Amino acid sequence: MTSAKASSASLLARELVIASIPGPTADGETRRFLADGCASGICLYGRNITGPEQTLSLTDALREVGGPDFLVSADLEGGYVWRLRPDATHWPSAMALGAANRPDLTRLIAHAAAREFRAMGIDTPFAPVADVSDHPRNPVIGTRAFGGTAKHVAQHVTATIGGYREGGVVSCVKHFPGHGNTDTDSHFSLPILNHSIERLNTVDLVPFIAGIRAGADMVMVSHLLVRCLDPDTPSSLSARIINALLRVQCKFQGVIVTDALDMKAVTDTYGLAEASVLAVMAGCDLVAFNGTLDDGRAVHAALAGAIASGRLPAEQIEASIGRTRALRRSILRNRRPLLDVVGSEAHQALALQVARLAVTSFDPSPVRTDGGAIVVEFDPRLPFADPNVRPPYRRFATDYASRLPAQETIVIHPHDWPAQAESLVPRIRASGTVIIATRNAWRDPQQALALTTICKASGRAVHVAMRDPQDTALTDGMAHRFATYSDDPSSITAIVDVLTTGSVTTGRCPVSLS
């Protein structure tokens, strides 16, 4: 291979890579990584973000080295999939928007969120989620989806894309061809879908096609084994799914990006570098992953080698780069708002408005709690979350006690329950009211056991499902049940308002409970 050919392949490979960086600054190693031409974009994670000013400084620094059209992304769906810190408006989850079911507000929120993202130098929030959440035991989508029917999800996907466009950021519908009906988390292993073609066409693909027709800029392809389409290859590496289905049948002509290729659904079999080559070979325009700078160099080298050898055809690479460059040019035309838009009073009010509309009561009579209740809240840690990248959480128990005197507030991790049960249960039996706030109890046997034990011990139990509404199925007939679909600050304020004032709720659960 000549040095000129290798240099050309390296430049082309750069255009295909969205990498990640180690910390909140563009340090020397990060700058060398970008100066060496290893990536044309970065996905930010919680470890990279400490506040609006720092985020803007970081994204400006990345563009100083990577160029003005350097693509900066982050997972900013709302709800618990959030990387920003409290100074930015933390929007309720997609399912909260689905429960409020005001597509006009969904569009307004997308527009407002987009302005905050742009002000901090973020080009795409890798949203909206277009999955139809119709599997009650889905461990990874849950409240990230707008709801459980194709039509409902499609309406809110369309509204979100319109709002993002008006606000100046790139929309990215995910997780194609649909991750909503799985019982496996692709972070850990490869989900297998035994759907029929009819099911895909009438359910899973409907919101994606609606998003494409609404002008989605990007589509993110997930790591799924969809047997009716390709029985041998994960969707993110499958030409049948990426080219035949997404490009031809769904008529998508924009940029296709992989879901994070460091997820075990693909790395356990292919490894990160080879998976990146296979994804591009199958038709993806961009490969994304959360890894080290050395991982980024390895991916770039693998792609450059495949381009130089002809394993990745030149015509295909040129077409991919044409699409990604056109997308980047379109971003440059969008004016960046001033930083003071981030976390503005108007945006906070909008978040609270939709959070209040989302609160759902599953029992007919309104509830107004009295002073002296025991408030039990389960720790918000997610089973798969890196504690170093989680945003700080406001406590429901603290907020409630600040509004109405509580006999006792208790915050426990589910696995601490056995140690606390002996002393806690007698106190609950002696109390008039207990309020329990759970987070995905259906996924955690210890939390579920604690929840039902508390409800049985109490004469008057109120259960608030702070994330997945499936938690409420555990206490049917044992408690007055509410769902907020999100534990962002606005959603916590909204449910505290309901409990302390007895106000009527209007939200409707957008998924089936089991």
The structure class reads: alpha/beta
What percentage of the residues does DSSP assign to strands (E)? Answer: 5-15%
- Report the helical percentage: 40-55%
Q: Total number of helical segments?
A: 17
CATH homologous superfamily descriptor of the largest domain: Glycoside hydrolase, family 3, N-terminal domain
CATH architecture label of the largest domain? Alpha-Beta Barrel
Question: CATH class of the largest domain, please?
Answer: Alpha Beta
Shape: globular
Cα-based radius of gyration, to the nearest Å: 23 Å
Summed up, the domain count is 2
* Spatial gap, N to C terminus: 60 Å
Q: The CATH topology of the largest domain is what? A: TIM Barrel
Mean pLDDT: 92
Question: What does this protein look like?
Answer:
The protein is of the alpha/beta class and 514 residues long. It has helices spanning 3-14, 28-35, 52-66, 94-100, 103-119, 150-167, 197-213, 239-249, 264-270, 272-282, 293-309, 314-332, 345-358, 396-403, 417-430, 445-457, 489-501; strands at 17-19, 41-44, 71-74, 172-176, 192-193, 218-221, 225-226, 255-258, 287-288, 360-361, 373-378, 406-412, 434-438, 461-465, 480-483. It has 2 domains: 8-334, Glycoside hydrolase, family 3, N-terminal domain (TIM Barrel, Alpha-Beta Barrel); 359-501, 3-Layer(aba) Sandwich (Rossmann fold). The protein has 17 helices and 15 strands. Helix 5 (103-119) packs antiparallel against helix 13. It is globular.
